[in-house]
Structures are given as C-alpha cells and as structure tokens.
Design a protein that fits this description.
The structure is a homodimer of 139-residue chains. By secondary structure, chain A is an alpha+beta fold. The first copy, chain A, has 6 helices and 5 strands, in the order ααααββββαβα. Chains A and B meet through helix 2, helix 3, strand 1, strand 2 and strand 3 of A and helix 2, helix 3, strand 1, strand 2 and strand 3 of B. Chain A binds a DNA duplex (25 and 25 nucleotides) through helix 2 and helix 4.
Chain lengths: 139, 139
DNA sequence: TTGTATGCAAAAGGTTTGCAATGAT
DNA sequence: ATCATTGCAAACCTTTTGCATACAA
C-alpha cells in the first residue's frame, strides 16, 4: 500500500495504515463502523469521517473493495423470475439480462462448506453504450 | 397481487396498487424516491413512508424485489482478485468464494446491446450451516 | 515548505418508527 | 367491527462536507 501511495504522491498516514491493518485482519466483510472500531482501538481518536475518507482513498488505489455495491439508495424491480444485471459504472443504470445459459451454474459442493445455495445472480459491471461514447469524445 | 394479498388476509389498498403500477410501468430500476414520485402522481398525498412500507410488503409477498441488496451499511474487503460471494440470508454474513471455474463466463455479445463488460461477480444467496441448524431446531 | 489528511461538528441523504386516524374486508 | 394501513412528523443510521489545524514528504 505504501507503494501505491508513493506512486500517486500521496502520504502514508498512520490512519491509512490502521484502517488497512484492521481490514486485513478480518475475513468477514466489515462495515465502515466496524473498521472504525477496530482501527481506533490501535489508534485512539480516529474519527468515523476519517475511516470513510481512508476507505475511499484505498478503494481508489485498488487496495480495498466495496462489496455490496450499495449506491446511496436501494433499487427495486418487479419480480420477473431469475435474471442477471448489467450495471453501468458510468451512469449507475441497471439493465436486466435474461440469459438462459447462465441459469444453471453449478457450485461445487466441495467449495460451499455447508452453505446451501437457494439462488444466485450475476452482476456484470461495465459501460453502457452511452457512457462509452461520452468517454471517447472526452478524450 | 390482489391474489397474494388475499392469500395472506391483507387488504388491497389504493396505495399498494399505485406503487405496483408505478413499478410495473418502468424497466429501469427506480429508487423508492422515484417510485414515490410516480405513484403519487396518480395518487396525490402518498407519503414516502408509505412507499417504503408498501415496497416491503410487496417484497414479502414476492411480488417485488430489491436489487442492490444494499443492507443499511456498505461492506468492505481487501481486494484479493476476482472472486464471488456467498451471502447468508439468515445472518447476513458474507463469505468469499474462489472458484476458477466461474471466472470465465462468457456473455453473448448479442445480449449485451452495446454494453461492454469489464468484470462481473456472482452473489450466491442461501443459508450457512449455522443458520440451517438453527432453522431445523426451531421447527 | 507545500499539499494532502485529519478532527470536529454540522449537514445531508435514505430509511424507519410511534401514534392517532383512516380504511379494507 | 376488527385489524392492518396510512399520514404526519420525528428519529435514526450511514455517509458526506466545510473549515481550521496538523502532518507527511
């Protein structure tokens, strides 16, 4: 991580180290609040705001990832049977993808470790044609 | 939907109809706020709170689905390359699933409609062994 | 020394809840 | 008549932001 900071000319602060250590130490997927609790145990006085800013910075560096791509607000759809989603990272739009070939993926039991799958859905992330055009013309 | 309400002895209210109509009329995946705007155009006076309650009710009936399984708070993980997630619907825990066989899915170009996929991840929903035990013993 | 990060506190969404009144069956 | 639902308003939780200060390089 220090490397990635240097690449970008960004300072390596104790807070960044603390957040990354806290996150590396766990296998579950903690919330910002949980990261704050863990990190501020080692570095008392850290603010929640700092944790959010550090997580954003680390995400931008590609060190950390936000799971549950929870935009600010939840999205709804009429339940139309199993299908997947195309999510445009440019504009945030979500389109449905009905693709029978993707409805029968098998999850090796050996990997499931006692986990019983009831359903699954795939989230494809990329750029819609509109956002691609925009990006091209901007260059 | 009227049918599902009756099954459960729940009233079919104008608000429920308005929300479902609003949601059925769109293919994008509107936020609760957008649903509220659309529904209250037809049924002035509807509150945002009602929209949330109606969406919850419809989801419980299996008529509507919440995309962006945005729990209240975002979750983070250290970026460890491509992998998928096992999400327990019982306790909300998320586990990583590294499964090489699932890393080379192909999305038929014909279906993508100009959408260029950069990456994807699969979310398997089900019950972890702990929650399964609990559920069994409760019966 | 310079530019970025931090703490603090306040604001800004999004969502939930208590309560009295309304309404569906 | 009965029980769930609605509206209203306030509360709640998570995340973001402005500003002055502190700090890494």
């Amino acid at each position: 991580m220090a490397a990635r900071c240097r690449e970008r000319g960004l300072p390596v602060t104790p807070q960044r180290r603390a957040v990354l250590r806290a996150l590396s130490a766990r296998r579950d997927h903690p919330t910002a609040e949980q990261v704050h609790a863990a990190a501020s145990a080692r570095l008392p006085g850290m603010t929640r705001a700092t944790v959010y800013r550090v997580l954003d910075a680390l995400e931008a560096m590609g060190v950390v990832r936000r799971v549950d791509h929870a935009g600010a607000a939840a999205r709804y759809e009429v339940d139309s049977g199993p299908h997947h989603h195309l999510v445009c990272v440019g504009c945030g739009r979500i389109a449905d993808l009905h693709e029978p070939a993707l409805e029968s993926l098998s999850l090796p039991a050996s990997r499931a470790r006692g986990f019983v799958v009831k359903e699954y859905s795939i989230q494809f992330r990329g750029l819609c044609s509109g956002c691609r055009k925009q990006q091209r013309s901007r260059k």
